[in-house]
Amino acid sequence: MLWVVKPKDDRQSISRKDLQSAITEAVKQSGPDYEGFVDVIVESDGTESKPKVNWAVRGIKFGNCDRKKGENIVAVIVARMQQEFMLDNSDRPQADKYKSIRPVSTRGPQS
């Protein structure tokens, strides 16, 4: 009989704001070429599954950092941090909270 053992997930839960700050600081501290880097935007992929990575970078604000170098270092840092951190989805953007609300008609009363 073959037993499959799943590895224990030791990733820490982190807020979106703290994760974005951690990635940005890691990029800036990577060397003098990255001091002008501004920020990253992280989004949830909507899953709560522990073994799966539940976040990804949605956007990058390069500032005056070289775009090609910035993309490369962000990719390396994000790959490492996806192994270390799981996004705490308790601070989802407001738009996610209201997806189920129907838009109000602006056409006026209908007969």
Explain what you see.
- By secondary structure, the protein is an alpha+beta fold.
- The protein has one domain.
- 32% of the residues lie in helices and 17% in strands.
- It has helices spanning 16-28, 67-84, 94-97; strands at residues 12-14, 39-44, 55-61, 85-87.
- The strands form two sheets. A two-stranded parallel sheet has the order 1-4.
- The radius of gyration is 19 Å and the shape is elongated.
- It starts with 11 loop residues before the first strand and ends in a 14-residue tail after the last helix.
SSE topology sketch:
Blueprint: E1 12-14, H1 16-28, E2 39-44, E3 55-61, H2 67-84, E4 85-87, H3 94-97
Parallel strand pairs: 1-4
Antiparallel strand pairs: 2-3
Sum up the overall morphology in one term: elongated
Low-pLDDT runs: 94-101
Largest β-sheet summary? 2 strands, parallel
**Average pLDDT, all residues:** 80
Strand order of the largest sheet: 1-4
Total number of distinct structural domains: 1
As a percent range, the share of helical residues equals 25-40%
Strand content: 15-25%
- What's the β-strand tally? 4
Oligomerization: single chain
Q: How far apart are the first and last residues' alpha carbons, in Å?
A: 69 Å
Return Rg in Å: 19 Å
